[in-house]
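Hi U.,

Before I forget, here's the chain from the pilot set. I'm dumping it here mostly so it's searchable later in email.
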Amino acid sequence: MSQEMTRDATNHDLVARLSARLGPAGVLTQEADMAPYAVDWRRLFPGRPACVVRPASTAEVADAVRLCRAAGAAMVPQGGNTGLAGGAAPDASGTQVVVSLARMNAVRAVDPVGLTLTAEAGCVLGTAQAAAEAAGRLLPVSFAAEGSAMLGGVIATNAGGLNVVRYGMTRGLVLGLEVVLADGTVVDGLRALRKDNAGYDWKQWFIGTEGTLGLVTAAVMRLAARPRHVATALLAVPDPDAALRLFTLAQEELGDCIQAFELISGLSLDLVGRHSTLTRPVEPAPWYVLLEAASSLPALREAAEGMLGTAFERGDALDGVLAESGQQAAGLWALREGITEAEAKEGRGVKHDVSVPITAIPAFLEAAGRALAEGAPGARANAFGHMGDGNIHYNVLAAPDHDGDAINRLVHGVVDRFGGSISAEHGIGQYRVAELLRHRRPEEIALARRIKAALDPDGLLNPGKVLSGQILPR
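Structure:
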């Protein structure tokens, strides 16, 4: 019997066992049905799964994992499949099982006094946000894909987004987890505790590890009080140094009311203007800052106006607009959120999701620009991102003859010089595996492999993602 025939027979037997346990709604096998699960959002990594399982409960997840492990079948956990690093896409072997958590989508509880929300992994982030809002509270995680990203994927990738400067990354908002391990064991740690110092904080092993150590099935998330007043401003600034001074001023004048501080290059808004009907309400400039502050105190707008007045007096802001309504604020954010789509319409882009110390951002941008001009003449840097937390999306608009891998090495080399990270919020997935091995210290990679070997000794959870090569033997 050929290897392909043996594989098909093994797949058929596993699919039959999974179908018997999960029922007809729980297993997809037709190519057309599996197509949405078989490729990543950016369509860089097309795959071919053996099947897609869609468990409806934690018990079904555990049983599916046991059946896959018994058959030696690799599993690829998947939420909303909105990631940008290919971390939730199967390979093209036809042997991997996609485990979609989409049917586990309940919001189990909202506690407006204890400020917690408990939900299943397949709950869409926007749905969880709406549940918190209905209780008068705020789930602070927010980014462009929140209408389709699912909570389990948000946790598995330690998603960042727009409000990190005030509320931190997802990691800091997770109070408790329920996880299915590689052998099917269910670990229930759904505790709504702000303080729990009893032993290892094991939930951290599964946050940001992209489903390579276990499958998140439910979580307790920390909520925040919902601010009553919001001030949103778009400012034209002369350079990143002025933006950094503006950030310092905003910290001094608005303190922890700042929930977003975005740096946007002139090229970014040029692209938005070229490829959409959106128009900028300020004069053209080399750089822009989109700032948002929120508070329950009524004096927020006056404080924001005073801070902006000082920025104009100092010359750190050249022009600007402070939104007069929620609709106008949404229009300012539409400019920021339209950058990625406009960039895609412009042509080929080599994307970088990097972070450096906040005070190093101006020097990093200057050094990266010089390196790009020398190493990839004609390429254009489209830089924008979350200056308030040190995260810059340093995307490069490249010509067909530009070497994308060479551009990656060039940009990431500059990141190293400033003590930064090659992935601030998008994760490693399969897109940045080689770069992670190049830029992380060998001792860190070895430690990660030891953890992987301990929790997934057979290497069946999302293989080829985050780490490459063989895990350590047991």
